[in-house]
């Protein structure tokens, strides 16, 4: 089963986040959208209270590195 929009917001993966992101990407229909929202490592430099587990911080480049290199994933640059 695939969907036009697959979205994940601030998820704390029980196992490998790379596996989670890959499975989410595999659920997106051709031409669909994968939206992953999470804590960026730069959040650690602020005074706002955030998650303490280092594995929940990631960049868009880290997410993309774990996805299938044979698939072209568009990137939002707004």
Describe this structure in words.
- This protein has 78 residues and is α+β, with helices and mostly antiparallel strands.
- It has helices at residues 17-26, 60-65; strands at residues 3-9, 28-37.
- Strands 1-2 form a two-stranded parallel ribbon.
- It is elongated, with a radius of gyration of 13 Å.
- The relative contact order is 0.23.
Strand composition percent: 15-25%
Tally the beta strands: 2
Mean pLDDT: 82
**What overall geometry do the principal axes of the alpha carbons give?**
elongated
Write a brief caption for the model.
The protein is an alpha+beta fold and 78 residues long. Helix content is 21%, strand content 22%.
List the main descriptive attributes of the protein structure presented here.
78 residues, alpha+beta, two-stranded parallel sheet, 2 strands
List the topology elements.
Elements: E1 3-9, H1 17-26, E2 28-37, H2 60-65
Parallel strand pairs: 1-2
């Amino acid at each position: 089963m695939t969907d036009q929009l697959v979205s994940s917001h601030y998820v704390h993966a029980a196992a490998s986040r790379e596996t989670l992101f890959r499975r989410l990407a595999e659920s997106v229909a051709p031409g669909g959208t994968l939206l992953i929202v999470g804590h960026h490592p730069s959040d650690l430099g602020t005074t706002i209270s955030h998650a303490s587990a280092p594995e929940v911080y990631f960049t868009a480049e880290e997410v993309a590195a774990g996805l299938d290199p044979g698939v072209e994933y568009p990137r939002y640059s707004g």
